[in-house]
Amino acid sequence: MQPDAASLASGEQAGGRAAPGEPTQQAGGPRIVAPEALGVADAVALAALEGACFPDAWDASAFAAALARPHVRAYGIRDGDHLAAYGVFHFLGDEFEVINIAVDPARRGQRLGSRLFGHVLQQADKAGMLQGHLEVRAGNEPAKRLYLRHGFAVVGVRKRYYPDTGEDALVMRRTAGQGASANI
Ligand SMILES: CC(C)(COP(=O)(O)OP(=O)(O)OC[C@H]1O[C@@H](n2cnc3c(N)ncnc32)[C@H](O)[C@@H]1OP(=O)(O)O)[C@@H](O)C(=O)NCCC(=O)NCCS
């Protein structure tokens, strides 16, 4: 992602796919809800989750202001009333950009990120987005695997892009229709 974290699939759950907002898993575990679009009303929850994931998190007013802009899209997965995963994207013309995606630290490695990202790529394809772009820290293995799994490829490197660590950014791109399976 970008140096300022704030600057801004679905499928493998027991019980199969559900419509956005409908529960997909109940018995014996936390209630998981299918990926859904988020809005200004979710700004407080987004800020709380981002604060748990990034040191330079946006506050709720920053999320509210961003989400009031027509080209900014946010999607999330709730675990009951708790926001467990979110992603923020720009949908502009026929291209989209991944601004950020993150999963509650306690819920990582459970394919919530994959499920959410797959859903967003389906939305991007439906909206006619021809290209997707993102930047990721070169050492962020989980994020790189997530993006590669969903059809992104590394197309460039921005040397020492992140001022906090001096880490390189990998520039990744996806062409429409690649790796957008709902069942990844
Ligand atoms: C990146 C992130 C969103 C992935 O979400 P997640 O729900 O934990 O990931 P998933 O369980 O869906 O797994 C996605 C892929 O990452 C891999 N992965 C997950 N955790 C991993 C780890 N600790 N090390 C290496 N790979 C890992 C999975 O194996 C999977 O790859 P595969 O499909 O090839 O098997 C999550 O780790 C996160 O919130 N990280 C911190 C915030 C961040 O860095 N966001 C990205 C900014 S660019």
UniProtKB/TrEMBL annotation:
TM spans (from-to): none
Domain of life: Bacteria
Pfam families in UniProt: Acetyltransf_1
Domain N-acetyltransferase: 30-177
GO molecular function: N-acetyltransferase activity
Keyword terms, alphabetized: Acyltransferase, Cytoplasm, Transferase
Disordered: annotated segments: 1-30
Family matches, as NCBIfam families: rimI (TIGR01575)
Family, per entry: Belongs to the acetyltransferase family. RimI subfamily.
Name of the molecule in the record: Ribosomal-protein-alanine acetyltransferase family protein
Organism of origin: Solidesulfovibrio magneticus (strain ATCC 700980 / DSM 13731 / RS-1) (Desulfovibrio magneticus)
High-level lineage: Bacteria, Pseudomonadati, Thermodesulfobacteriota, Desulfovibrionia, Desulfovibrionales
